[in-house]
């Protein structure tokens, strides 16, 4: 089905592609469309994965500016522990 | 007292191989067992499964895992399970394991679980065949968890799933997708099983802490929720023993 360019449909389509495209396979990312700008938010594991996300989003929305606001995952060791009864 | 380390949704791939293992340095001094709540890979390929097996082999403490939906994506879940088991990781699906941790017997029952939603707003086994199959699987896996818990007679019991048993640990996710993130049937199984702690992943935007209707602590250990390599939970119930 051809992608409707309305922001409502466009954000849904980008989100689905980020999950289904083999290059990204990312669930749980947020996609917000405001005017000609697409904002990508959420957490990703590496700079390479971030580049892939931008690449896939740009393919679907070549006329939009992609603003990648994702953050890189933090793998520091835990400082404390939780005590449970 | 028994200290449990737990994490889920590590989504290992070539680009991050070895990074996670580095963050596990020193874990044997802090925990007696490591639990992995599924989504260990990105695409569920054999290659990624091998990377996960290498990441968790010979850590010096028992590693117990369930698979997640990503680990099923390439239909290689059986091969991934076999590779993890070859590396010494215990993989649960509708079964359990009993570990003797410094004299405390810890029972862990696990399943991937599935979606369907939460009490009053859940799916049902009705209508199209696809819908019936979807909810039938949720029922089947939840029943598997209940049976695996029932078989345990240990000092401490943990339920390990990928999908969430409760809504509380999904807070932060859009409520419209809750039915894809978990099922109350998992909580019902946990509440029947005299469980001390329930661990799950899957909900990257969710919250860490919740509780079942029966009062069992639930922890969402998805890596993006924890914002650290793993969480540590000390079960003080063992003090009385």
Question: Can you describe what's shown?
Answer:
The complex is a heterodimer of chains A (85) and B (241). Chain A is built from 2 helices and 6 strands. In chain A, helix 1 packs across helix 2 (47-60). With 85 residues, chain A is an alpha/beta fold. The longest helix of chain A is centred in the N-terminal third of the chain and has 14 residues, at 7-20. Chain A has a single domain (7-72), classed as Histidine-containing Protein, Chain: A, CATH 3.30.1340. Chain B is α/β, with parallel strands linked by helices and 241 residues long. Chain B has a 6-stranded mixed sheet with strand order 5-6-7-8-10-9. In chain B, strands 4-3-2-1-11 form a 5-stranded mixed sheet, covered by helices on one side. The model of chain B has no long low-confidence stretch (mean pLDDT 96). The interface between A and B is medium-sized, with 24 and 37 residues.
| Helicity of chain A, as a percent range | 25-40%
Mean pLDDT over the full residue set of chain B:
96
Shape of chain A: elongated
CATH architecture of chain B: 4-Layer Sandwich
CATH C-level category of chain B: Alpha Beta
Q: What is the CATH topology classification name of chain B?
A: Purple Acid Phosphatase, chain A, domain 2
Strand content of chain A: 15-25%
- Give the helix tally of chain B: 7
Secondary-structure-based class of chain A equals: alpha/beta
**Global Rg of chain A:** 16 Å
In CATH, the architecture of chain A is 2-Layer Sandwich
């Amino acid at each position: 089905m051809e992608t409707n360019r309305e922001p409502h449909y466009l954000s849904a389509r980008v989100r689905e592609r980020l999950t289904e495209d083999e290059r990204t396979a990312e669930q749980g990312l947020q996609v917000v469309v405001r005017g000609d700008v697409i904002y990508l938010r959420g957490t990703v594991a590496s700079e390479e994965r971030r580049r892939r996300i931008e690449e896939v989003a740009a393919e679907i929305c070549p006329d939009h500016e992609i603003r990648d606001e994702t953050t890189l995952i933090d793998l520091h060791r835990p400082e404390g522990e939780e005590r449970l009864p | 007292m028994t200290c449990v380390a737990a994490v889920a949704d590590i989504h290992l791939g070539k680009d991050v191989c070895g990074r996670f293992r580095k963050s596990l340095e020193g874990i044997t001094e802090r925990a007696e067992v490591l639990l992995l709540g599924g989504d260990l890979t990105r695409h569920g390929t054999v290659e990624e499964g091998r990377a996960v097996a290498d990441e968790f082999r010979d850590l010096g403490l028992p590693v117990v895992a369930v698979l997640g939906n990503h680990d099923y994506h390439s239909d290689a879940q059986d091969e991934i399970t076999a590779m993890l088991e070859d590396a010494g990781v215990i993989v649960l699906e509708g079964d359990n394991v009993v570990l003797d941790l410094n004299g405390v017997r810890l029972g862990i029952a696990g399943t991937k679980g599935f979606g369907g939603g939460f009490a009053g707003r859940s799916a049902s086994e009705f209508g199209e065949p696809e819908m019936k199959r979807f909810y039938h699987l949720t029922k089947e896996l939840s029943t598997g968890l209940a049976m695996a818990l029932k078989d345990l007679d240990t000092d401490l019991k943990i339920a390990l799933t990928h999908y969430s048993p409760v809504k509380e640990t999904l807070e932060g996710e859009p409520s419209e997708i809750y039915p894809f993130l978990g099922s109350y049937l998992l909580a019902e199984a946990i509440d029947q099983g005299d469980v001390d702690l329930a661990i799950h992943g899957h909900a990257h935007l969710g919250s860490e802490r919740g509780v079942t209707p029966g009062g069992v602590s639930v922890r969402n250990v998805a890596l993006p929720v924890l914002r650290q390599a793993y969480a540590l939970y000390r079960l003080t119930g063992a003090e009385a023993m």
